[in-house]
Amino acid sequence: KSDTLVSRDAQNAQNLELWLDIAHTGLGGAAREQSLSRLCAWILVAERQNLRYGLRLPNGEISPNSGEAHKRACLQALALVSF
Q1: 56 and 20 Cβ atoms separated by less than 8 Å
Q2: Minimal CA–CA distance to 10: which of 47, 50, 43?
Q3: What angle do CA 44, 46, 49 make, to 5 degrees?
């Protein structure tokens, strides 16, 4: 309904952590490039929404954080993934 008010608890939202995991991209092993592309898109969306997010890849993980430096570190990790 258009007359329904929605309240957002910004304090609680800041405490949430999101894990972006290559195993959860929904794509099989043959679709490696699509998996990386999907993770890249998720990183950009999470950053745009000011979420704390971590990244899990076959060669390690990056702990949850946010900000420009964190985004760059995650995107660089994607670029260096070896399967």
Answers
A1: yes
A2: 50
A3: 105
Report the sign of the C-alpha dihedral through residues 67, 19, 41, 31, in that order: positive
Q: What is the pLDDT of residues 27-73, one digit of tens each?
A: 766 688 899 999 999 999 999 999 999 999 988 999 999 999 999 99
State the sign of the Cα–Cα–Cα–Cα dihedral 18, 44, 75, 82.
Answer: positive
- Say what the pTM is: 0.77
Contact 20, 43 (CB under 8 A): yes
CA distances from 44 to 30, 65, 71 (A): 24, 13, 8
